[in-house]
Every structure is written in structure tokens, then in C-alpha cells.
Amino acid sequence: VPVEQAQKVLEDGIGSDIIKIGSMVHKKEKFLKRRQRLIGPAGCTVKSLELLTNCYLKVQGQTVAAVGPYKGLIQVRRVVEDTMKNIHPIYNIKSLMLKRELANDPQLKSENWSRFLPKYISKKVNTKNKKSKSKKKKEYTPFPPPQPERKIDKLLASGEYFLKEDQKKKIRNQELMKKREQAEIARQERRKEAFIPPTENVSSSQKPNTSSDVDMKALKEKVKKLKKKIKMPE
Questions:
Q1: Gyration radius (Cα) of the chain, Å
Q2: Are residues 82 and 173 in the same domain?
Q3: One digit per residue, pLDDT tens: the chain, 234 residues?
Q4: How far apart are CA 183 and CA 177, in angstroms?
Q5: Bridge partners of residue 37, in order along the sequence
Q6: CA 168 to chain centre
Q7: Following DSSP, what letter does each residue of 50-83 receive, concatenated?
Q8: In angstroms, rounded to a whole number, what is the distance separating the alpha carbons of residues 51 and 68?
Q9: Number of folded domains in the chain?
Q10: In terms of residue numbers, what domain contains 87?
Q11: What residues have CB less than 8 Å from 16, skipping those under 6 apart?
Q12: How far is residue 179's CA from residue 213's CA, in Å, rounded to a whole number?
């Protein structure tokens, strides 16, 4: 702690507190993460705590040193202990800010502030108390399970074991040819699908007029007019 801040301890109403945080967390990785969370990015969390509690804070090694009024020291200790218990300091900072605003309000000064303060909900899942899924017990049989067939056993059962190498090659080639033929047929079917025209939904307005009702008188008059035009001399 610098001398300028340490001299304030001699003043009335100001004290100091050294909080040992090394023994609060056993694992080193967790300790480093939580200490960094207490400091904040570029020391933002420490600065905000200093402004809210009117205390000077110094986080170094496995200790946190604080100098300031007694009320602020109590608040700093609570925030540090909660942070090392995996409670983010932002919850305590929010509650301190709300308390300061509520203390300045004369109407809410004498009321209970618990409804305004943020509540921390732990999301830690206890895996130890989880019931293991009950596995169905198999029926007891005195006989051992059947052994899986070897490749030689399969060849003996099919009769391929006694064939010559040329005959085996022929059988393999035939199987390959069958697979290729099946793949070729599937490929051709996929190509044909692209040339199948889609079904068109013809609306009632576009349907051709197939009705047999024809005006015969109008047709006869048209035919007579055409004949007269043809007979007329040029």
C-alpha cells in the first residue's frame, strides 16, 4: 500500500483490513480466474468498488489489502469472500449502487430494500446426487455366449475355402460387376428424373371450350356472304 494511503489509518473513523484469499480456493487455476474476476479488465472492478465503498484496495498475491471507513471495509470483505465463492462481483456492485440511491430517497429510506436488490441464483448442478440409470439385468445362464465366427469358418461354410485362387478371383470379379451394374442403373434413373416434365395445374379459365353448342344461323349467313364476294367480278 502506498504511504499516502497508509497514513489515513491514523485518522479517526478509518481502519485497515487484510483479507487472505489464498486458503479460500484450493485449485490454483480456479484461484487465478477468481482473483482476475475480482480485479476486472484493466482494474475496472477494483475501481468501482473503491468509488462505492470509499476504500483503497490493493490485490496482490494471495491477499487483498483495504484502507478506508469501517462500513466500507465490511462491504469490501463481503464482496471479496463472495467472489472467491464463485459469485460474480457485479451482483454485489449492483446492490451497493442501489443501496446508495435508496438511501438518498427520503420515502424509501425507512422501508425494506430486499425487493429492489438483485438476487443471485446458483446454477451449479450437483452430479453426485444424480441417480444412475437403472440397467436391465440380463438373465443368468450357466452357458457361455457363442463365439463369433472367424473368416475361415465363414469360408468353410460357403465352400470358398476349397476353391483355387483363379476361381476366387472370378467370384470377386462377378460380385464387382454386379455392384457396378446396380450403380449404373441407379445413375441412369437419376438422370432420367431431370427430363420428366412437371405436372401442370390447368386453371378453369384456361380450359378449351369443348361445348358442342354452335349458332347454325350465324354460320349460314357468313357462308352466304363469302359466296357473294367470290361471285362478284373484279
A1: 46
A2: no
A3: 788 888 888 888 899 999 998 888 889 999 999 999 999 888 899 999 998 888 999 998 899 999 999 999 999 999 999 999 888 888 888 888 888 888 787 777 777 777 777 776 666 655 555 555 667 788 888 888 888 888 888 888 888 888 888 888 888 899 999 999 999 999 999 888 888 877 777 555 555 555 455 567 787 788 788 777 766 554
A4: 10
A5: none
A6: 53
A7: HHHHT-EEEEETTEEEEEEEHHHHHHHHHHHHHH
A8: 11
A9: 2
A10: 3-104
A11: 6, 9, 65, 66, 67, 73
A12: 62
E-assigned strand segments in the chain: 14-20, 56-60, 63-69
Q: Return the HEC string of 109-164.
A: CCCCCCCCCCCCCCCCCCCCCCCCCCCCCCCCCCCCCCCCCCHHHHHHHHCHHHCC
Same domain? 94 vs 171? no
Residue 25 lies in a domain: yes
How far is residue 67 CA from its own chain's centroid?
44
Provide CB contacts within 8 A for 37, sequence distance 6+.
45, 83, 88, 89
Supply the CATH number for residue 59's domain. Answer: 3.30.1370.10
Q: Which three cell numbers stand for residue 43?
A: 482494474
Question: Which residue carries 446454477 as its cell?
Answer: 123
The one-letter amino acid code at 80 reads: V
Q: Which pLDDT score is estimated for 208?
A: 53
Is residue 126 domain-resident?
A: no
Mark whether 99 and 166 lie in a shared domain. Answer: no
Pull the grid cell for residue 106.
Answer: 427520503
Beta-bridged to residue 17, according to DSSP, are 66
Structure-block grid coordinates of residue 190: 437419376
pLDDT at 180: 93
**87: closest CA among 74, 97, 78?**
78
User: Around Cβ 69, how many Cβ atoms within 10 Å?
Assistant: 16
